[in-house]
């Protein structure tokens, strides 16, 4: 198994256009239309307090994570996606750890995310990384799909 390479997508990235196209294609494949950022992905990335890390194996996209930090008080993981044929290989965990580290360097106090309670693999990963369930938000994704709001507190001594 090849070792994944984690890259940060920035405005100056040489492969930005190609990578955004690949990520949008993955976004459309994995998320229902009402949960997808495919239409506004590039616009989201242009925001000042938004970051995107992606994982490559053999030069091919394996997954990505998008996060934002509206203030120094908190940041949010807004998307985490891994290609179906790359799952259960550590890409999600590697991307999460990289995003957590980026937030730590920005002196963020709390990192939050939302997850569907039925996504047991995702829940297990977030708990493994130290996230705790804050509360259940009913009808978060749709009228019959709820979400746990989870958080990770940072000790920025």
Overview of the molecule:
This is N-acetyltransferase domain-containing protein. One of its GO terms (molecular function) is acyltransferase activity, transferring groups other than amino-acyl groups. Residues 1-155 form the N-acetyltransferase domain. This protein is of the alpha+beta class and 157 residues long. The chain has a domain at 5-113: Gcn5-related N-acetyltransferase (GNAT) (Aminopeptidase, 3-Layer(aba) Sandwich), CATH 3.40.630. It contains four helices and seven strands. It has helices at residues 16-30, 41-46, 91-105, 120-128, and strands at residues 5-8, 50-57, 60-68, 74-82, 110-115, 132-142, 145-153. A seven-stranded mixed sheet has the order 1-2-3-4-5-7-6, with helices on both faces. A hairpin with a 5-residue loop joins β3 (60-68) and β4. The longest helix has 15 residues, at 16-30. The mean pLDDT is 87.
**Shape descriptor:** globular
The succession of helices and strands, N to C, reads: EHHEEEHEHEE
Instruction: Tell me the CATH superfamily of the domain at 5-113.
Output: Gcn5-related N-acetyltransferase (GNAT)
Oligomer: single chain
Secondary-structure-based class equals alpha+beta
Please tell me how large the radius of gyration is.
Answer: 15 Å
CATH architecture annotation of the domain at 5-113: 3-Layer(aba) Sandwich
Number of strands: 7
Widest β-sheet, arrangement of strands: 1-2-3-4-5-7-6
Low-confidence stretches: none
Broad CATH class of the domain at 5-113 = Alpha Beta
Main beta sheet: 7 strands, mixed
Q: Strand share of the residues?
A: 35-45%
Mean pLDDT: 87
CATH topology of the domain at 5-113: Aminopeptidase
Give the fraction of residues assigned to helices.
Answer: 25-40%
End-to-end separation in angstroms reads 38 Å
Q: Supply the number of helical segments.
A: 4
């Amino acid at each position: 198994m090849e070792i994944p390479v984690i890259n940060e997508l920035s405005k100056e990235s040489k492969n930005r256009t190609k990578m955004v196209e690949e990520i949008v294609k993955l976004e459309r494949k994995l998320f229902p239309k009402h949960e997808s950022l495919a239409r506004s992905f590039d616009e989201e990335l242009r925001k000042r307090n938004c970051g995107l890390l992606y994982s490559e194996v053999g030069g091919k996209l394996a997954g990505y994570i998008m996060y934002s930090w509206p203030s120094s008080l908190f940041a949010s993981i807004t998307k985490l996606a891994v290609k179906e044929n790359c799952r259960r290989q550590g890409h999600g965990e590697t991307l999460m750890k990289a995003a957590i580290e980026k937030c730590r360097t920005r002196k963020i106090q709390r990192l939050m995310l939302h997850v569907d309670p039925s996504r047991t693999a995702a829940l297990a990963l977030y708990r493994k990384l130290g996230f705790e369930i804050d509360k259940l938000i009913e009808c978060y994704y749709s009228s019959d799909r709820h979400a746990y709001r989870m958080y990770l507190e940072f000790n920025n001594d």
